[in-house]
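Shapes recur. One chain:

:::
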Amino acid sequence: MWDLVLELNVIDGPFVIAVAGLSALALLYLLFRGSGWSWVMAVIVLVIVGGLLGVATLWIAVNLLDAFGGPVNEAAWLWVPAAFAASLIAIWNLWHSRWWRKVIALLAIPLFAGVAALGVNAAYGLNPTLGSMFHISTADPIAVPTPDPADAADPAEPLYLTWAPPADLPAKGQVGVVEGGVPNTVSGFPARPAQLYLPPAALVTDAPRLPLVVMMMGQPGDPDASFIGAVLDDFAAEHDGLAPIALVIDQLSDPSVDPLCLDTELGMVETYVTQDVMPWAKQHLDVLQGRQYTTIAGYSNGGECAAYFGAKYPEMFGSILAISPVEFAGAEQAADVLASVFGGSQTAYDAVKPANIMAAKAPYPDTTAVFTVGERDRAFEPGTERLADAAAAAGMATTFFVVAGADHDAEALNGGLEKGFEVLSPRLGLAAP
């Protein structure tokens, strides 16, 4: 029963329609409290004052407190002021009114806040269920196939040339929480459970070794493999069931904190990824071993991490897929990060910026990099383009792609994943050049 509640669709399902309808009815009741110009003027004043309070509160949360880990979607600047205005009207109804109007007004305030939260969430599209909005996963455990140590050598020919799909090939892959978890033995980083996507070709008897994608999501966010899983299911449907195995890991631990994908007092994330996750994945997943077949990917905060790890560890990652990335660690609050994490040392801070690492380690003779961003994502587009330019200047085979009509949202994420695997598929041995 609890899982059914957590799995409620909060993007466009009946639950959202019901909550929005109830909110509209409550607002209409609260609005029609009186008549005449005095009532009309009171409503106008309350709407203006409430809207301004909402704008000011959101501005402080975004720009001073960095409560959301960066800029927010344009929809937030509409929904939050609207919720404040409606709540102020509800508060106005608490005075000189009968008890039932007071009760409705008190119940309406959290209802208005909830509708605004659902509206903003729907605009992003990154938390499709009620559980995901509260960072509660309902994904089932998924068994990790045991690879055959005798079959560890990478193939001489691209996989698409030698693969013959069996008759019992599943139509879709599977997504789930890694059974047993990914150990943090070296780093001690308290990562949340990773999720795994296994494509159809990984689910058959005598499955081939497949390319590996290690991905990280944004902040606040969760290690959720459903997005990349859906895109790779579509990819597999067009490639005889072939697609990469995708391991979506947690680089945050706490979604309200950004450890910057570095080794700092905030957490040993770099050690976790390079010395815990990668050795475990190469040993325990049925994946191809060469760097050519290994992609580091990420969205938003995770996109910055992908650019950083791909730039710093080219011997480990042959490809980079950075979707709507933060340009460098803590870019949204660079002055605070400089002071609190790097002790005021600009030199130390500059040394961990992906573009600077690329310049220092150039050339990259055999690295492919894909950078994507939403067409309407004005906050992240300039930094993404600068990263792509730096990668190209450093000798990487670079693609910069703008997702038409997308903002910093699920549309940008899905479009970036689709373009990324379109570009990377020949390199990964999954399609003809």
User: Anything to note?
Assistant: The CA atoms of residues 45 and 80 lie 17 Å apart. The mean pLDDT is 91.
